Structure formats: C-alpha cells, structure tokens
Amino acid sequence: MNPRLPSKLFYGGDYNPEQWPESVWLDDVRLMRETGVNIISLGIFSWSKLQPAEKRFDFGWLDRVMDLLGDHDISVCLATATASPPPWLSLRYPEVLPVTADGVVLQVGSRQQYSPSSRVYKKFASALVRRLAQRYRRHPALASWHINNEYACHLQECHGDDSTRAFRTWLRLRYKTLAALNQAWGTAFWSQGYGRWEEIFTPRRAPYHCNPTQCLDFKRFTNDAFLSLYRMEAAILRAATPHIPITTNFMGFFKPLDYRSWAREVDYIAWDSYPDPVDEVAARHAGAVGHDLMRSLKPDRPFVLMEQATSAVNWRPFNLPKRPGLMRLGSLQTVARGGDGVMFFQWRASQAGAEKFHSAFLQHIPPEQSRVFAEVKALGAELQQLTPVAGSLVRNRVAIAFDWHAWWAVELESKPGRIDYAAWAQRLHRWFYDRNIGVDFVHPGAALTGYDLILTPALYLLSAGDATNLTAFVARGGTLLATYFSGIVDENEHIVLGGYPALLRAALGLWVEEWAPYPDGQTNGVRFTRDRTKYTCDQWCDLLHLEGAEALATYTGDFFAGRPAITRHSHRKGTAYYLGTRLNAAGLDALLARVIKDANVQPLLSAPAGVEVTVRESVSERFLFLLNHTDGAARIPLGRWRGTNLLTRQPAARTITLAPLDVAVIRLDN
Ligand code: GLA
Questions:
Q1: Ligand 1, atom 10: nearest CA belongs to which residue?
Q2: Which H or E run includes 11?
C-alpha cells in the first residue's frame, strides 16, 4: 500500500523564501501560524540556489527554512527543484535545451528549458534529487515530496537529437519490427514506408499533413518521456523515504499528459486550478469539472488542490481580482468535491520577476491592511472546523468516458470537422453540474460497476476491448449515451470498417453512413417525434440508419431533413441512446431529462439555480455541502436530511437560508 498523507485538511501554498532576505522568514512563519497554514510547498524553483555551479552545492539556507517550519509545526511538501534548471547547465551542456518542431532551440531566462529526453538533464536532476533525499529523509517537517512542477506546462514536446533517439527506442519497444510499425502507421499511404529505424523522426515541421499515427504515437511517447522523468525521481525518493507520500501537480484538462497513466504513479492527486473570475458562472463550473476529473483519477483517496490564486493571476491579458467571498467559495468547493487540501500559489507575493503581479497570501502591503489576508485568515479558521470531513470520499452513479488518447486522436489534423473534445465533455458535464447530479470521469475500459449512466462524448478512438466493455455495461442493464464521432478508429487511428461506429453497432442499434460537420455559425434543427418540440443543433450532424433503434428526434433541415438525429435502443437489459448532433441547451435538457429517468438517476437535492450541492461520505459519516454561488439569498429545503452545520456549529434548520456566496457544510445524522 502506498503511503498516504495524514487524514486532515491541508492549508497552505508555495513558499519561495529564496526570493527574500532571511530577516523576513520568521515573520513569514509567524504569519503562517496566524493564518492556520499547516503545509508549505518548498523549493520548487530553487535549483540554482541549491546548486549554484556544477560542483558546488548550498543546502544551508534550506536547512534553516526546514528547521524553522518544523519548529513551528508546519509540514513541508518538499519539492525536488528540478523544474527550472540553472543557467550553468545549458551553457556547459547545450543539448539539454528543448527544440521545437521548427528546429528552434528554446533558451534560458524563463523556466522549464529542458528536453524531457535529455540524458544530461536526467543525470543532473537525479543527482540533485539523491542529495535532497539523503539530506532531508529524516527531517521531522517532511510530509510529502513534490516532484518537479507542472510537467509539460510550457514545454510540451521536444524534437532535439535526444528526443529523436528516444522516440525511436520507444517505437522499437512498441512495435518490435519495422513491418509492424509500417502497418500501424499505414505507411503504404504517400510513399512513407520505412526501411531503417534511422529514417524515422519526431513529427517535425513538414510540407503537409503529418502521418496521423506517427503524430499520435509522438504524443504517447512525449507523455511517457515526461512520466519517465517523474518515475526516475520517484524511485530515488521511494528508496530513501518509503513512508513519505510522493506527488506532482497536475493541471486538470491538460491535453499533453495522459494523467490516467500518471495517477498510478502518484500517492495522491494534486492539481492546480486557475479559473478566470471574469466570468464567475463559467469559473465555478471550470473549478467543479476540473475537480471531478482529477478526483476520478484516484477515487479512493481525497485529492489536494496544490495551487490556486488568492485573488488575481498575472498571466492573462487582463487579470481580475477575485471579489470578496469568491476565494472562500472556490476553496470550499474544492472540499465539497473531494479535496482534502486547499493550497495557493504563493505565500508571499514576489517583488521581482515575471510573477510579481500574482496575488498571494501576503500581498505587497502589510497584512493588517490587506483584504485578501483577512479572507485567507478567516478561511484557515473555517477549514479547521471542517476537519471531520477529511478522508471522506465522493461517490457518483454517472460517469463520462474520457480518454486522453481519444482526445489526442480526434484533434489531429485532417478530420471531417473540428471537435473540441474537452469542451464537448465539459458541456455535457455542465448539464449534470447545474442539476447537482455528481459525475465522474472514467476510462472506457474501466470496471463500470456502480454506474447507472455512462456518456461517451465524441469518443473517436476506441479499442475493441473498450467497445466490448461499454456494450457489456448496457447488456447488464446500464444506460449509455453515445454521441457523434464515437468509436470511429482503433488504437492505431485506423477506421474500423463496416459502418461507423462498427464496434458499437449492436449496442446502439444503428449505423452512420455519413456526417455533415458544420462551420461555426451554421445550424440545423431537430424535432422530437413524441411532442414535436424543436431545438437548434450545430457543429455536426450524423446521417444514421436504424437497425433496431427508434428515432427520438429527426433533423428539420438540410438534405437529410426527416432522418433520425437522436435514437434510443434497448439492448439486452439496458438502453443505449445516440446523439448524432450537438444540441443547444434546451434541446440537451429535453434529451438528458429523459436519459436520467431511464437510468433512474436523480439530483441530490432540489436546490435553487446557482446552489451547488454535493455529498462526501466515509464508512460511518456523510457530509452535505451547500454552496450559494448567487448574489441573492438562497432558500434550500433539506427534505429528509438532518444534521449539524460544521461552520456555524448549529443544528441545520429544515430549510437553510444561505447568504450570497455563503456555504453550509452539514454533518448528517445517521
Ligand atoms: C503555475 C505554477 C506556479 C506559478 C503559477 C502562477 O501553477 O506551478 O509556479 O507559476 O502557475 O499562476
């Protein structure tokens, strides 16, 4: 069993004491205590300070910070400092620097300027990690390891010599023979047949479309290259401190990394969330859907929100502050959706550097003059009151099948139309979120027991095994909603022949002959057969043939008017719906209301619009979270629920009235 964090709610953030004179450190730690901070991420960007030259190390300052934090009972999530190599490294070994698809070498002066396949980088990074592990393995403040930082955030692929060599090695492992590679890549097309491994390159800039399987494999390879860096560090740390949990910070819907493959390697999920407060409604959903995706990666352990902003960020063209109350609400939303940690970038706002306009616990003014500080201090106290929630989990009956390989594949060039895979999944999630029906994200090949309803938005790439898994889910009595452009290609990005989506035909009771992808602005309509209601649709229209399914709605326009657009099919003990187009909000509402009825899924509570409701549960306890995201008071009848509000310490009334942006967390009576 991998080590766990202790069961409590973590509160804190990134601490970069190397940016400040030692004279402020004691003040920092005193204020951390005052704020209720109990954990700090330390040393994330400290490599050049820890190793100012190839053969010179300086751990003295870090010893002093570690001791200071430990003496004040503040735990440390100690970073391995490998995210930003020092300038001396690439001066001496320029091959460390990453190369773009155009052949441009990315230089020092920012961060993340290393190739994930660089042998020199690996050598120096692992040597540093070994020293850190040896030095701090028994330090009482050490609570967790924080490997690197936001892998691939800025540097998402590399085409340099080390990368090319590593790509070839990766391909040899995957395909064994060139014949197998040529077959998988379909190189009979356009005279691309490879006769020697040396002829193969990463997909550099080329005259026209890249071979899609080559591009897809390069994305897989790049994921694995970054993951192997993580593994390299984790192995060193694991050997030195088998009892200390290890993680790295994910970034939610981040396309370059298949976080499902990473989730197996981390001891707990940590992620960074920065929804733009310019649109508060979109932001609260962005937070929720990110938490749901990240939580689902390791559903049996609470996750930690490793970074968010106390107020404004610095990296958008316009960086709005979070108005009073929003930071608290977003933080409690994290806990509501399964988080046991609320952390921020960063403790003390920088005075210099590219992030000096990024908010922090401590802004550029004395704390007693700071609105943000007053809010983080109040939040720290509230989180302590929520301690009983720690360790409890979120359980849902609805899931969206979401797969990074399908994401990579469906967004490669030369497709019939343009599909924004994550946006389509998020749009479906939003319908459930707005109705307080909890949703997980699962791999289509996962064990789907426990779920009543599975959705597959544009699950373009689907293996035969995963298609069988989805079909078996329906056969056992589950409800499936598949949408357009699902189940079109196999793992090699080859069309599965015989009428799309060939492997789901039996479950869906239909096949697709053609599709009409629409440019932005072009629309069609659908009319439901039962009540003749009409709705607009756009982006995509599948032209279906029924073979057992019934048409729930037909198109109203284009040359295929009158033909089925939405269908329902009984397959063994279950039901499979098919949505051949992208419906507007009202149309989606009409369809999904019917789908959840079939699946026997209901909202947790009937609450006014803008009130978010979730439940966390442990073996013996249940906690009901109510979050009022609106600017008006919200009255929420609790129905059968009874309990005590952990934030007010009062018994919950039968109808709770929440002030604007307020939250109730009710420990339910058994
Ligand atoms: C990311 C990084 C941090 C910092 C913040 C700013 O999350 O991990 O180092 O740059 O963004 O928002």
A1: 355
A2: strand 10-15
